[in-house]
């Protein structure tokens, strides 16, 4: 509850996604699929500063997209999709109380276009925060993920799989089985602390210096699967990689986990060679020279974005890789990550 004199501060965070084995099989054209992915920090962070405005003709909503340095008032209800369509569409899809006004502050440490599902993490966190404004009804994390997916597909008309939103909502090591698009079950792979800590120690995330965006290559891959009676057998190795990774993690078998990553990488190449870019190949080669046993282009692949690497047991080799990375390209960036045991978190500041 809130009286007119008190400002509420609502917080929500959601992790981003890396190492998405089985990506491409969580789409409408795949029909069914399996994805294994990892929720990690840096997370997307949302704060709502809420006040009651019972006498106002319409709620006043201010968006502060901190990463972009943009602060502006949304002047129409429903909002026009103008400066930041994803954020504005999240406001549009929610049935928000008319007697509240609020400022939305959004921030993420993940670089824009990093191909780690940052937009999904932002929308999950924002919808999770907005959900706390409506007393008497609340969405589950699964429902928040589904609504975040609807924002991208229905409100913005984008091609969008389901895995990013689910990983941000659930966190941890996620095994997602899509039975019929977009319906899926999600299981968190629970392992011992020692396996969890070892996985976290071995992983590395490298940003390839420029934003990832959907490309002509993606369009050609999708068009091939859209054709009547299209051969979709190329998706089978990707589904297998997801199952293999899940089983390997349960066994604490990092060699097998690395092989699952490699199987997925070859599966992406089979969809189209350009999905594994020359920049990614250069990082893979350097990582292999420093003891890496697995590598995977994050997201759908193509130019820009990021890659996930899995190193061997010697931490010194991973550190040597990090020191050597700028020699490939000074724009490449090593991004520290930590495995997230939690997905969407929502709370109100005291």
CATH class of the largest domain: Alpha Beta
How many strands, what sense, and barrel or not for the largest sheet? Answer: 9 strands, mixed
User: What would you call the shape?
Assistant: globular
Which CATH architecture of the largest domain would you pick? 2-Layer Sandwich
Summed up, the helix count is 10
- Give the strand tally: 13
Question: Summary?
Answer:
The chain is an alpha+beta fold and 350 residues long. 36% of the residues lie in helices and 27% in strands.
What does the secondary structure layout of this molecule look like, with pairings?
Layout: E1 8-21, E2 33-52, E3 61-65, E4 70-74, H1 85-93, E5 100-108, H2 118-131, H3 141-155, H4 163-170, E6 173-180, E7 183-188, H5 193-202, E8 203-207, H6 216-226, H7 236-251, H8 254-271, H9 278-289, E9 292-297, E10 306-311, H10 315-328, E11 333-335, E12 338-339, E13 345-348
Parallel strand pairs: 3-5
Antiparallel strand pairs: 1-2, 1-13, 2-5, 2-6, 2-12, 3-4, 6-7, 8-10, 8-11, 9-10
Helix pairs in contact: 1-2, 1-3, 2-3, 2-4, 3-4, 7-8, 9-10
Note down, in words, how this protein is organized.
With 350 residues, the protein is α+β, with helices and mostly antiparallel strands. The chain has two domains: 8-190 and 340-348, Ribosomal Protein S5, domain 2 (2-Layer Sandwich), CATH 3.30.230; 193-338, GHMP kinase, C-terminal domain (Alpha-Beta Plaits, 2-Layer Sandwich). Helices cover 36% and strands 27% of the residues. The protein is built from ten helices and 13 strands. The chain has helices at residues 85-93, 118-131, 141-155, 163-170, 193-202, 216-226, 236-251, 254-271, 278-289, 315-328, and strands at residues 8-21, 33-52, 61-65, 70-74, 100-108, 173-180, 183-188, 203-207, 292-297, 306-311, 333-335, 338-339, 345-348. Strands 1, 2, 3, 4, 5, 6, 7, 12 and 13 form a nine-stranded mixed beta sheet that branches. Strands 9-10-8-11 form a four-stranded antiparallel beta sheet. Helix 7 packs antiparallel against helix 8 (254-271). The protein is globular, with a radius of gyration of 21 Å.
